[in-house]
Amino acid sequence: MKSIIVHGGAWDIPDDMLDEHRAGVSNALTTGWDILKNSGGALDAVEAAINIMEDDPTFDAGRGSFVNMAGQIELDASIMDGRTMRAGAVAAVRNILHPVTLARAVMDKSEHVLLVSDGAMRFAHEQNIPFCGADDLLVGREFERWKEIQTRPAYSGKEAFAGNTPARDTVGCVALDDNGNIASGTSTGGTPNKYPGRVGDSPIIGCGTYAVNSVGGVSTTGWGEAIIKVVLAKSIIDAIDMMKITPEDAAQHGISILHSRVEGYGGVIVLTKNGKFGTAFNTPRMARAYMSDEMSEPVVVV
Ligand code: GLY
């Protein structure tokens, strides 16, 4: 049984950006699905699908990411292998177009789970992960947003996630391959105008990303400060495991505790060991797409 689900962020996606969000998640899904169809592994499918969205300036990941308070782009990403429960993550890295690939190198080629900032970039050099210029990540839309935010004395990430700022968010993917292996990954530029060195939920295993073959996998999107507090991704996996609920109910359960306990906003994608999907969000919109070999064609929704 093969299944894959991707998200391109939960936020207030404006009407005039719906088509590019649909196209972006659809391209990512196709890339990951092609790998699974050709007997590729779940980890490869997740990394490749996320790479597509990191390349796409539509999303807040890789190229097109938000700019921090210091005028820099700092990126976070993680990936987890549900077969071994190995995981790799990087946070606050600069000049790397594909932070999820660096996160995978941390998982595959180091004894660590999370490397940050200069240490993560040193590791990238050692592993021959390509570096890019700051201009390869920055797009005009985000420079204009950053300049506009500087004119406002009190801007917070929560404000944006609550639906007051048209924008985008984090990308992620969960895949199940024919060998029953589940992988999950997430990549982000974080929140607009974040404090330098700020780390969100996306590179924190259990918060932004989680995968265990005996249950399923999750990737989250939304206001990281809230998502971290409820350990959202693992809370959803635990709900499926212990409460024996469907992935759809588990996704709703996750968003319910995110909102009721910490007034959080965001979205989740869930994939179980049986290849079943769940999605939920409490933002105005969430871009997502999914496909399995029980379906005749992919579903793409924003
Ligand atoms: N969910 C992305 C972040 O808060 O960094």
Mean pLDDT: 95
Give the spatial strand order of the biggest sheet: 4-3-2-6-5-1-11-12
> Helix content range of the residues, please?
25-40%
Number of helices, where a helix is a run of at least 4 consecutive DSSP H or I residues: 10
Query: How would you name the CATH homologous superfamily?
Result: (Glycosyl)asparaginase
Q: Report how far apart the termini are.
A: 26 Å
**What is the molecular shape?**
globular
β-strand amount: 15-25%
CATH architecture annotation name: 4-Layer Sandwich
Q: Name the poorly predicted regions.
A: none
Backbone CA Rg: 17 Å
What structural category characterises the helix and strand content?
A: alpha+beta
List cofactors, ions and other ligands.
Answer: glycine
Quantity of strands, as a count: 12
Sheet having the most strands: 8 strands, mixed
CATH fold name: Glutamine Phosphoribosylpyrophosphate, subunit 1, domain 1
What is the CATH top level name? Alpha Beta
Overall structural domain count: 1
Question: What is the succession of H and E elements?
Answer: EHHEEHEHHHHEEEEHHHEEEE
